[in-house]
Sequence to fold (462 residues):
Amino acid sequence: MREMTLPESGPKRKLLDAAERLFAERGMDAVSIRDITDVAKTNVAAVNYHFGSREALMSWVMARVVVPIHEERLARLDGLERKWSGKAVPVEEIIDAIAKPIVGQARKSGLSESPFYKLVGRIFAQQADGLPKEIEAQLVYENDRFKRAFAKALPSVGEDELGWRMHFMRGGLIHLLTHQELPHRQARGRSADASMDAIVGRWVRFSAAGLREGVEPVTSSKKGPQELFDF
Amino acid sequence: MREMTLPESGPKRKLLDAAERLFAERGMDAVSIRDITDVAKTNVAAVNYHFGSREALMSWVMARVVVPIHEERLARLDGLERKWSGKAVPVEEIIDAIAKPIVGQARKSGLSESPFYKLVGRIFAQQADGLPKEIEAQLVYENDRFKRAFAKALPSVGEDELGWRMHFMRGGLIHLLTHQELPHRQARGRSADASMDAIVGRWVRFSAAGLREGVEPVTSSKKGPQELFDF
DNA sequence: GTCTATAAAGTGATAGAC
DNA sequence: GTCTATCACTTTATAGAC
Fold:
């Protein structure tokens, strides 16, 4: 685990917590420095003294949310690759390693679940824009690791096609995180299991099917040369 | 086609055009009344005189973008249901009816393609939030029509499950519209066809596979996706 | 209808007292 | 380190002249 130099307490920590809560509740653009210092019970100058600017504070907030998810994802993927020792990891398990860390971190977070998911979704939606360069690079590495895992599991899917399918998949996750409440409203009380785990499970299966589109199911041994056109 | 009372020319039209362009280029939150009146070459009071408020102008801009797409979607769905006369419409064709109108309207729009797609994506992302109530109701109706069409094609998929799968599907489309450039960057020059038509085609197939997850393929008559690729 | 001038409130950032 | 006071701007909206 890379250690981030983030304070355990003190005013910096109070500002980060306050900003995170407000960003989650209202969206990044709708929170002023004064809103943050009011909640953190510091003076208005504290943000600029401790972080240099509102922008810099925003970066730290995003980093603090994203980095643990990133690290848990890589740890899970490492684990899977060890478990399957060189062989391709099944698609569903790879996708699981993308989604589960979000649910896990939501519980560890001081925020309630729904705002936390919205915050994470918004951060992923703007695709790391505004994150410190160093962390952006980590996310690029993460994306590459997962892409290679998928490529191994789906050798007949061309590289460009795979990139797009991962893009669509990610979009589904972001929409789920930021607008969890919409399908819930439609399913008035009927819903079998409304927990995030269940919903994420639906997303995993949906995405796995999408990624596998056009790929012949492996019945017993390798089938004939497919030569799928990947438009 | 429902006729909207939108001016063909004059200052109202100039303001709508300017606002649309700026919203598309910079995002809804990053455009001030002054930015708009500067581009429209009117005085600052014009927005409030003609529309009452910045918010109201925003609603009109969104409506003007969304309504033609909405109407073309319904027209296409009507056409498909006529064509298949009561029988279930194939999933790919329904999804096509969701996506194609966006590409069509992009060409009719005065904006260049990329900003137009971003604008549409952002409007869909906030799920009609901020739209006039009347138009929001139209979108709810549209969603219901498409959901019923999918339900007919996929009778073994439960209603809640279908709602979630459509949600994931929509998320993929939104992400595609708002971040079209990301996978393009990965595929440096290799890409076979980078047109929006081709990308939307990829999304249609991805989504169809996701919607069909767990559904037994119909083996009775000619199977396979042969005649479905009309992109 | 069009325009200027201005109100009233908010913004991020900072100088300088303590 | 903490805080107040304030700067220099920007925001939406509107009153009132033309």
